[in-house]
Specification:
Elements: E1 23-29, E2 32-38, H1 44-51, E3 70-73, E4 76-79, E5 92-94, H2 107-114, H3 124-137, H4 142-148, H5 159-171
Parallel strand pairs: 1-5
Antiparallel strand pairs: 1-2, 3-4, 3-5
Bound molecules: FE2/S2 (inorganic) cluster (FES) (2 copies).
One FE2/S2 (inorganic) cluster is lined by residues 118-124, 154-156, 158.
Length: 173
């Protein structure tokens, strides 16, 4: 199941008005306003990882095929490698670093640990961001979980354990 982003230009400035050199961009990331000076072509993933030192979001393919870079924009999951950073102005970006509160892991993070839902862990931040979102989207049936997580690949093939973690959070167990 592909993951589509919101209409990001709705509230942001028109892309044709700025650049092509570096421009000032203000993003709200995990509830904090962040200021960058970047070229308009910079992806949200590179802005997060290379400019804001938020390296939880992973770069697997950098072309929208693996889901390792999954973050939320206004609560909806998107692929940060296919999203321009400057198009996110006026929207709230949430990364895996913003998932836990006060040092307490999110229930989905705990479930991934409890269910041994990772091996190398490279895909895990994206899996967790997608998993929390899919439950919020209402895709809670056993048969739906795999389908709505299918945009997040795991080279270690931890899929049965990942689905078990999602079910555990769904069931509150
Ligand atoms: S790094 Fe974005 S989908 Fe693979
Ligand atoms: S745990 Fe290794 S790629 Fe998923």
């Amino acid at each position: 199941m592909s993951v589509r982003g919101p209409e990001l230009t709705e509230h942001g400035p028109g892309l044709e008005e700025r650049g092509p050199g570096p421009v000032n961009v203000t993003l709200s990331v995990n509830g904090t306003e962040r200021h960058l000076h970047i070229e308009p072509r910079v992806s949200l993933l590179d802005a997060l990882r290379e400019h804001l030192e938020l390296t939880g979001s992973k770069k697997g393919c950098d072309q929208g095929a693996c889901g390792a870079c999954t973050v939320w924009i206004d609560g909806r999951r998107v692929l940060a490698c296919l999203t321009l950073a400057m198009a996110c102005e006026g929207h709230e970006v949430t990364t895996v670093e913003g998932l836990s509160a006060d040092g307490e892991l999110h229930a989905m993070q705990k479930a991934f640990i409890a269910e041994d839902a990772l091996q190398c862990g490279y895909c895990t931040p994206g899996q967790i961001m997608a998993a929390v979102a899919l439950l919020a989207e209402g895709h809670t049936a056993d048969g739906e979980i795999g389908e709505w997580m299918s945009g997040n690949l795991c080279r270690c093939a931890a899929y049965p354990n990942i689905r078990a973690a999602v079910r555990a959070v769904r069931d509150g167990s």
